[in-house]
Amino acid sequence: MATGGELQLLGSWYSPYVIRAKVALGLKGIRYEYIEQDLFDKSDLLMRHNPVHKKVPVLMHGGKPVCESLVIVQYIHESWTGTAPRLDSGQPMLTIRCDTNSVLLSLRIADTQVHFFQPWRALMRSTTDEQRDEAFKRTIPHVETLERAFWECSKGNDFFNGDTVGLVDITLGSFLLWFMVVDEVAGTTLLDDAKFPGLAAWAKHFLTLDVVKRAMPDVGKLLAHYKIFLAKLANAPTGNS
Predict the structure, then answer these.
(1) Rounded CA gap, 188 and 191, in Å?
(2) pLDDT-derived band of residue 103, with 50, 70 and 90 as boundaries?
(3) Three-state SS for 67?
(4) Cβ(171)–Cβ(77) under 8 Å?
(5) Domains of the chain with bracketed CATH
(6) Rounded alpha-carbon distances, angstroms, from residue 239 to 137, 234, 236
(7) What DSSP letter does each residue of 2-43 carry, written as one string?
(8) CA-to-CA distance for 106 and 95, rounded, in angstroms?
């Protein structure tokens, strides 16, 4: 098992992508050194180890950088194969397929710009009631797909992965506090108990895990951060300069 000196994680406290890496490391019981990064004043360390995208998270293992959150989760899975739990359910790491009654649900979670995350990101970035209403309407069909996928994949257990947390749980679960703060500002309820009982119960189970609690930021602090983000977005100049 790597020690803190051998394994370092560069991240920002509010990033759901960093939360993914923290949860995966926590599930495997891997010790590491966390180094907070200011994305508005990027450090030489970050620029040196992720010079192309200049983003977090970056996992450094023995000086070797690994970038992009899902690649990091895959790297953790493959590098600590002897440490429970499995993170892949025996499926390819970037795709999970659930096949019941000839219904095939494929969650392409490698590309977070498509399917659920694209319309939800529009909701997160909305600054008017009209924008929020439209974005929320476009997000709900994707939540319906996730609800069906949860019942197909979980087979009556608490998580997409069954009775333990896996890749889909980490990928979606890392955004749960962000779902909450966006709901608070937008006046929406994304994972409504009545409409999406499977996802609502899954979210509660995921957030009660000790490794998840340790990885998540304070929700009040995150809400304040989000409101500042929206204020800057609303006041940003539009059009070409």
Answers:
(1) 9
(2) very low
(3) strand
(4) no
(5) 7-79 (3.40.30.10), 96-230 (1.20.1050.10)
(6) 26, 13, 10
(7) --TTTEEEEE-TT-HHHHHHHHHHHHHT---EEEE--TTS--
(8) 7
Tokens 């970037």 -> residue: 94
Closest by alpha carbon to 222, among 169, 180, 188? 180
Number of Cα atoms under 13 Å in the Cβ half of residue 238: 3
* DSSP 8-class letter at 100: E
- In this structure, the number of other CB atoms found within 10 A of the CB of residue 239 comes to 4
Average pLDDT over residues 85-105: 45
80 neighbors 7 (Cβ within 8 angstroms): no
CA 94, CA 213: separation in Å to the nearest integer? 25
Residue 102 clears pLDDT 60, i.e. is over it: no
CA-CA distance, 61 to 140, in Å (whole number)? 39
Distances (CA, A) of 234 to 39, 107, 210, 226: 20, 33, 36, 12
Residue 224 near residue 184, CB atoms below 8 Å: no
Residue positions counted in the chain: 241
Residue 153 pLDDT class (50, 70, 90 cuts):
confident
